[in-house]
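In response to a reviewer's request, we include the raw inputs and outputs for one of the modeled complexes. The two entities were modeled together in a single run.
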Amino acid sequence: MIRRLLPLTLVFLAASALSAQDLVPIPLELPKPLFVGTPVPFKVPNLEKASTTKRPPFLAPAGTVNLAKGKPVTASDAFPVIGELGFVTDGEKDGTEGTFVEFGPDLQWVQIDLGETDSLYAIVVWHFHAQARVYHNVIVQVSDDPAFKTGVTTLFNNDYDNSAKMGVGKDPSYIETSEGRLIDAKGARARYVRLYSNGNTTSDLNHYVEVEVYGKK
Amino acid sequence: MTPTVVNGELHEPARARLDASLFLLVLLAALGLRCYTLAPRPMHADEANQAVKLGQLLEQGRYVFDAADHHGPTLYYFGLIPAWLRGQATLAALDETTVRLTPAIAGVVAVALLWLLVRPWGRWPAFLAAGLLAVSPAAVYYSRYFIQETLLVTFTLGALVVGQRWWRTGRLGWAAATGVCLGLMLATKASALVYALVAVLALAASGASGRSARPLGAAAGTALAFALVVVGLFYSSFGRNPAGLSAAVHSIGLMTVKATAGLTGHEKPWWYYASLFVWHRNGLLWDQSLFLLPALAGGVLALRRRGLPRFLALNTAVIAVIFSLAPYKTPWQVVGIIPGLCALAALALTRLRWLVAAPLVLAMLLELGWQMRRAVFSKPADERNPFAYVHSSPDVKKVPAIAAAAPAGAIKVISAEYWPLPWYLRHRPDTGYWTEPPADCDAALIFVDAAQAGTVRERLKGKYWEGFLGLRPGFMLVVFEQEDK
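The model returned the following structure tokens for the whole complex.
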């Protein structure tokens, strides 16, 4: 048996030595960057117009309405850079100046108090849609605890690297459009809705044009 | 010890001390505003592009003037000094603070030179003009920006200051110094030629008197000879690239076409530069009217006074008109007229009685300070900041961390536009750049412009995580990071 295995082992070792000797990093020539002049201002239309299809209708039990309209809003920063907290639930969604609220850099949140615990089916958020952008660390949670310490349900989280320190999220990042982002609330029961973000692909600021919370009392 | 006050008036040593104190105060303000925290603002595409060129010069000692897309060589050669002083010998070792120190120090020198230029008008006009330049939003913003404009302003002011001394004394040394400054101007940007020609015309029309009786021809010849030597040294890469000299001549034609043909994408209406100073709101409020109005009043007053006042009024006005009429406009060009406006505003305000002038000056400094703070420190890369032109998004600063966290292997950047990524990936020589998707798109980490992401996705064989990264407003990159490696 050993006599049979010995030649095989020697052949294997020789082949391994040879292949290890032959394996060298390939001389990969990568193109160098080209030096160019000042980039020109980029004017893109809202990407929503360029997207292929309109969002299909979201189905919810009969009698589902926007429970957030006109409801009180609080935020991580009570004094926004631009706009007022009330803009988040005022029903104005065109995204022009005077319809959005702007918060400073880093992780910021807004919170809507629905007034009572309701069954929630969908949350639609418009951060800013006058320009193609992606907001980072978008996390949407609901709870009956206004401090969001207990009974928290996370409905959406695209914080892939856990930079918000609230757990890794597997939801995709998305480009803002005038359709807003619809998040399935799956019938969760809660009184408070909290939405986080951490800057966007254009600036390190955070914006909200509108948040709608569809549910039933 | 000499008494400091005699019969209610300051004695000479006390005057000198007051002058020195005021001068030092202004310089310290200029230095602080220009050098404080230079690193946080993301690198603009132009800054990154030029910083990589500086890195190549630093590393390989090699610089070749490119007439098509770049200005003159002085920025890179002067950029070597802070790099050497800070012990940074390679492109990878360079950082934002080092590269931005060159225009920052030039900006401080410009403040000192304006003080020297206007000093013949008296202590207070000189102090005020220099003080206004020290806090001017555009001057501070672009002194912290690794582009040529501030250097051009500084060399122009240098030429005026030493030219002024030659005018009075007739000494050939001052003529030579004027030539050196002129050469440095021309070796900084082709548009220096416009500044030089306008200055000569404004001098001729200024009715300036008091010139030394020494012959003009010898001085002009000396100045021209020194200017040509400086231009020759810089554009030929100090003798290593003689072809740079013909490229420099060629760049004048290119500049003329660029400025006038209306084909660059940077075309703007004639009132664009004026609009940077007047009240406008784009989500944020911008205004420098309290500075602009005295400057305009000073311009009118100065036209009636022969010599330096009329020269500065004509020089500033003609440059503003030329730049406004040329279709090509970028906001950094406005810094060319800021020193003139500061001097003219100072002239107007110091003609007023103290009781009237003091509150006006205070209001003007407060407004400029507020606007400067917003433009330079609060919103330096915000697209609503009129000086943050086509600026990179703060997202680009995440690139080194993304590259460090990615699996080992090459990085591919596939995008119609990708600057300033080569700066943020300067530590990674295993990075390749394509403007269109190559046949083999796979790599450990890929940055693709959103418009080409679909094509790249179809060509990828491996499994990737995808995310978004902003390059600049409206221009997004899709990041593909290999998962199965």
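As requested, we also summarize the result in words. The CA atoms of residues 41 and 198 of chain B lie 35 Å apart. Residues 354-378 of chain B form the longest helix (25 residues).
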